[in-house]
Fold these 3 entries.
Entry 1:
Amino acid sequence: MNKFILNCAVTGAIHTPTMAPYLPIKPTDIAAQAIAAAQAGASTVHVHARNPETGMPTGNTDIMGEIVSTIHAKCDVVICITTGGGMNMTVDERVAAVPVFKPELASCNLGSMNFALFPVLEKINEWKYDWEPQYLEMSKDFIFRNTFADLERILDVFEASGTKPEFEAYDIGHLHNAHHFYNPSF
């Protein structure tokens, strides 16, 4: 079989705790699931941090540090820190962990896009946390921003940190954006 990379994202940022009852939100649980994914064969683990009290996506580098250090202490998997963050974060908040932890990989969403999660609101009557319905409702009028200027900023931080981009393409236009930013030095 040809070699391949299996990347496991154990949390993501668009789902809320009510939508997925097994979604880890505590740093120890996120790290444990990442370690289990590595033990099951994942080559890399894509890590998002969440507020351990509410489950909301967060750019808090202390929380990310707890996750990263726990994973590093227990296995030798490649850690891919997210720069997707969450709908509640600025680009600077989304990329803040990269210069702090200098991961081998970090995600780079290749363009702006819409996340239409608001239809889930009709399917759930009880929420674990008050922030969840508003978070999903805001997706009706939200553009996940990744302009060319944003991407330049993110890729500059990667280069300064010695971090390789894990490019995420959600449509054909994103492939054209990747070509625009193609840099053989990565």
Entry 2:
Amino acid sequence: MAEPTSVLPRIAAGDPAAVPDCIARYGGLVWGLARRFLGNPSDAEDAVQDVFIELWKNAGRFDPALSSEPTYVTMIARRRLIDRKRRVGRAPAVQTLVEEPPAVPRGPNRAEIDDEAAKAAAVLNELREDERRVIVMAIYEGKTHEEIAAETRLPVGTVKTHIRRGLIRVRERLGLAGGAK
């Protein structure tokens, strides 16, 4: 029996008829793998789409000297399915919230909050310039460690250290617990 012509080189060459041929030839294989890996038909459908998109993007990388086309398709599918399963495994579980009447806040009043904020700002101004600058960028400007590192031209580790040490000093000077970590 003759070996069918490879479909991946045709996809890489831009042959529009190769896409439906690829789906017809490998759809059952990819669908079966997705159902076995994920169990949920909805997740499996999304995963099959991801696998075929990955195949189309990487069709030019297929080398018949290294493996057969079904082996290459299986390898791509398996890799994408493992990635998807790991991603789903890391997602937090969704819980239904029970509606309860809002609790009446019994925290500090506005004057106490303003007083504490003024103390924290004063202590922040006592810090070394490099620590104060990265803390202001992180807290007031909402920047990530990477964004701060890019803007200040400091290594990310240095940015994290400045933030940590600065916040420890702020806690110590304000007399808050956990300042001596």
Entry 3:
Amino acid sequence: MGKVSDFGKFMDALCDKILTLGMFVSLLTIGVIDRWALFPVLLILSRELLITGLRLVAACKGITLAAEKVGKLKTVIQLTCISLFLGEMTMLDDLADKMPINFYEPLLEAVSGAANATLILATLLTVFSGVVYLAKYWNLFMDEEEK
């Protein structure tokens, strides 16, 4: 219907963060994502919490911060990464004996490699978009007199 509200802008971004962070932590906890990925997941978690804090500070000042384009791209890459890890998990748990081995092994290797590569890309985009967001809206953290 084309309706946009301040509440919707805030909750859309918050729900994206809850979904992606919950999935990254869950996949890491159950061992789908390897241990080396703890640091990238913590970087993603830190950025998301920092930007959510910035949005809350802005909301307290009556300002609604809409999502930046780089932030939307970051979310797409994060969700692609999660989908690839879920695909890898599905292949390992459900498809191992359902496909010919000469097709299964290269496909599993490709999906696993793509999942790890998109995790690295998602981490880089997450950090970059966080820096962009903080640079643009850092003044919201400052006192009114310093503006």
